[in-house]
Design a protein that fits this description.
single chain; about 500 residues; alpha/beta; six-stranded mixed beta sheet; five-stranded parallel beta sheet; 16 helices; 18 strands; about 35% helix; binds ligand F0G
Length: about 500
Amino acid sequence: MTTAQSRPSTPSQGTRTAARQQCLDADCAAVYPVSQVLVSCPKCGGLLDVDYDWAGPRPEWSTFERRALTKGPRRMAGGEATTAAIDFSGVWRFREIMPFFEREDQIVTIGEGRTNLQKADHLACELGFDLSGGGELFLQYEGFNPSGSFKDNGMAAAFTHARMVGAKRVACASTGNTSASLAVYGALTGMKCFVFIGDGKIAYGKLSQALEYGATTLQVAGDFDACLARIRHIAEKMPEVGVYLMNSVNPFRLEGQKAIMCRVLEGLDWEVPDWIVVPGGNLGNCSAFGKAFIELKHLGLIDRVPRLAVIQAEGSSTLDRIYNQHGVRFEPVKDGDGPTLRGRWDHAKVEAEYTRMDTAGERAKTVATAIEINRPVNLVKSLRALQAMNGVVRTVTDAEIVEHKALVGRWGFGCEPASGASVAGIRKLIKEGVIKPGERVVGILTGHVLKDPDVTVAYHTGIDTKAAAVDLSKARPAGKWSNPPVKVADDLDAILKAMGVN
Ligand code: F0G
């Protein structure tokens, strides 16, 4: 365990940290202004980062701590931000770590990120930790966000960018939580929201949120990957529709998700833990964590980085195969004095695995629908995180996921199935001897227990409540504010018609 370094504060020299978007592929490394709305690098199609020159004064942990004590007054959530509102936010009180905005009044906040790092001794004993030998397990409850999942961290940042560029319509494909989060922010900022969900692939807790918050919800006949391909096409290739994409391929989302790691460090009094363990779906979260630690180390706010474990469901394990079976690694390439974010990797091996999956007709399937994803969009960024954090990738079965979800509930605040993967992964890694029983481990619980009540009820009663589910398109809601989902074929014209934009 290492204590974060403390340095004297640097007086402001009147300089401001400049931000840009940059392709992470070292062979491209194209640069674009922050003001440009992009889904991927126009030059090579690669993933973009938000990069900084870090010329501003060095941030201090004490500044962030002080802001957490803010009292108010508060204004309307999502409205024009006040200093009190952004200090209250568990994302924006770390704003010097994500300084892509031009002015603080552009910032969007709804009070996200007031989450909770809890020591979990009972669970630690059950999982095989050696408490008397210094072993410690902490759980980071991201389900305490306004929409009930970690997504609000990223959505606050992406909506801030959307506001900066004057977006009026925002959209996402989702396994549920992104849509719930998008819909809350859309309702509070007044941006028109479109949500694409796979047919029958969403937990009702999450679907109910998107409907309640007024998003236009398209239930596309296909899975998450099909939904993302459709909305990416509309956002990227049809500028006339004017849709701003809110999935984690949007690099501004990941800037906000870096705050989760700041709060973990804060909860440990700025001591770096030995391990961060997180479920992996579209791989945005682990990618954001990797970038956070690369940058915090560069800034001198920490003097070492924790190890990373990404846990996938056995039935949805593309990263596991690419990392463990095919041995694909991110090779960092230094390009200047800043943190090393660009690199190279074996493109052909990744493509070969995707082709193999398609040829075999292999589709992701897991009880943890949040992480049921075939082609994770942030794959390469997750490889960068694994490289920077000396990481490992493991899979756990659906049975292990629901078992460990129940264990969290038995001794804590509870979590949804995908988050149970973190805890199942910790047990597996302790058994393997990779995590030592005397180490300090932080498991990220990404979503609230109430997100997927069907899985919980089925586990505790044996009753499959989803079997009684009706075809939503046949239902006839009668409420004044009823906002039923629109069932639509996986077809561009039909989708544009359902969005009301053609
Ligand atoms: N846990 C929960 C509860 C999630 O909702 C997700 C992703 C993940 C873990 C995986 O995170 O994609 O950053 O690796 N849900 C997305 C969605 C895909 O659409 O809500 P990731």
